[in-house]
Amino acid sequence: MSVQRTARRCPAAHPEDPTPCVGPVMVTVLDAVNAGADGCEHHGARLLASLDGGRVYALPDAPTGAAIRVFKAADGIRPFCWIEGPRTEPSQLSRAENRARTHL
Fold first, then answer.
1. What is the largest CA-CA distance in the chain?
2. DSSP H helices in the chain
3. The pTM is what?
4. Helices H / strands E in the chain, number of each
5. Residue 57 · residue 30 · CB < 8 Å
6. d(CA 85, CA 37)
7. What's the angle, vertex CA 23, arms to CA 22 and CA 26, rounded to 5?
8. Hey, what's the torsion of the CAs at 95, 35, 9, 75, to 10 degrees?
9. What would the pLDDT profile of 15-60 be if each residue is shown by its tens digit?
10. Contact between residue 28 and residue 60 where contact means Cβ atoms under 8 Å apart
11. Rounded distance, CA 75 to CA 59, Å?
12. Are 37 and 47 within 8 A, CB to CB?
């Protein structure tokens, strides 16, 4: 399915994610093999949540705490959170949801 956009979004925004950027590009998110994308904090968190072994780094001109805000936000976001429908498998849940399941 093609999603049309009129506003330019940061490179970390997934093409199927319908949400707009929230603020300027502040972080770089890298995957397990060091491929990466720069993004706003919002899309950086959504991208990080969708990666196994991902890392986040603040860009040099980012405000203090940008990377940690993205890291903390990603913890509670489900991978590919814009996908609708029942999502109950561990790989479809947020890291926080999976931790909560193991502590029952």
1. 45
2. 41-49, 66-75, 95-102
3. 0.87
4. 3, 3
5. yes
6. 27
7. 115
8. 10
9. 999 999 999 999 999 999 999 999 999 999 999 999 999 999 999 9
10. no
11. 20
12. yes
